[in-house]
């Protein structure tokens, strides 16, 4: 792992939000985990060590030391893991990129934001609440609205993606990988122009 000192420590965190149990695999709510796995694979990084209540791995992106994180605290407590790692490495919120699902975007759509409210996403709410900041760059991955207003939102976000939707997501996760690189390069405006 990276050390804590200036020369060896992680400079950025890239966090994919999701839930750890097998029953949540390939569900809409685990979009952040799926995206992070894809980014790790693209970069030849294994996210398999357990630290900071998360699965973590490290890689270099745009010349910076980056820790990839999948909090294993369950979605609603994601902030516990993220803030623990931020405190250890002395990383400011602007250097923590959070990837998560968004029901207000169609599957296949993505939004990059520099900062802002949690937008009703409880993992993001936990991170903002426990860190005391909303200055986190974030990548929101569309999971689609409930197909029927009578559906319970929890049932919808915990439903599985169809095989066609998973194909769409592969391209989207490539875009998320590119957006992460642009953000780390300090070019978030370019990422927003390109992907929003």
Helix/strand-derived class? Answer: alpha/beta
- Strand proportion, as a percent range, falls in 15-25%
Low-confidence stretches: 1-7
In round numbers, the mean pLDDT is 91
* Main CATH class: Alpha Beta
Strand order of the largest sheet: 2-3-4-1-5-7-6
Any idea what the CATH architecture is?
3-Layer(aba) Sandwich
Level of helix content? 25-40%
Specify the overall morphology. Answer: globular
Order of helices and strands: EHEEEHEEHEHHH
State the end-to-end CA separation. Answer: 34 Å
Number of helices: 6
**What multimeric state do the chains show?**
single chain
CATH topology (fold) name: Rossmann fold
Gyration radius, rounded:
15 Å
Biggest pleated-sheet summary: 7 strands, mixed
* Structural domain tally: 1
Strand element count: 7
Name of the CATH homologous superfamily: Peptidyl-tRNA hydrolase
Describe, in plain words, how this protein is organized in 3D.
It is a single chain. This protein has 196 residues and is an alpha/beta fold. The protein has a single domain (12-195), classed as 3-Layer(aba) Sandwich (Rossmann fold). It is built from six helices and seven strands; from the N terminus they run βαβββαββαβααα. The chain has helices at 31-42, 78-89, 122-131, 153-157, 163-184, 188-195; strands at residues 12-16, 49-51, 54-61, 64-71, 96-102, 110-113, 138-142. It has a seven-stranded mixed beta sheet, sandwiched between helices. Helix 1 crosses helix 5 (163-184). The chain is globular, with a radius of gyration of 15 Å.
């Amino acid at each position: 792992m990276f050390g804590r000192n200036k020369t060896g420590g992680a400079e950025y965190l890239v966090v994919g939000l999701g839930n750890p149990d097998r029953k949540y695999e390939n569900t809409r709510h685990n979009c952040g985990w799926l995206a992070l796995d894809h980014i790790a694979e693209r970069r030849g990084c294994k996210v398999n060590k357990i630290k900071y209540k998360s699965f973590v791995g490290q890689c270099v992106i745009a010349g910076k030391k980056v820790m990839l994180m999948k909090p294993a605290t369950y979605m609603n407590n994601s902030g516990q893991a993220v803030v623990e790692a931020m405190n250890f490495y002395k990383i400011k919120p602007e250097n923590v990129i959070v990837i998560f699902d968004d029901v207000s975007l169609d599957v296949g759509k993505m939004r990059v934001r520099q900062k802002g409210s949690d937008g009703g996403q409880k993992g993001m709410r936990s991170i903002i609440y426990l860190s005391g900041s909303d200055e986190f760059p974030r990548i929101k991955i569309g999971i689609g609205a409930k197909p029927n207003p009578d559906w319970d939102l929890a049932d919808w976000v915990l439903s599985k993606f169809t095989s066609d939707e998973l194909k769409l997501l592969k391209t989207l996760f490539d875009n998320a990988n590119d957006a992460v690189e642009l953000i780390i390069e300090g070019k978030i405006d370019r990422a927003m122009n390109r992907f929003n």
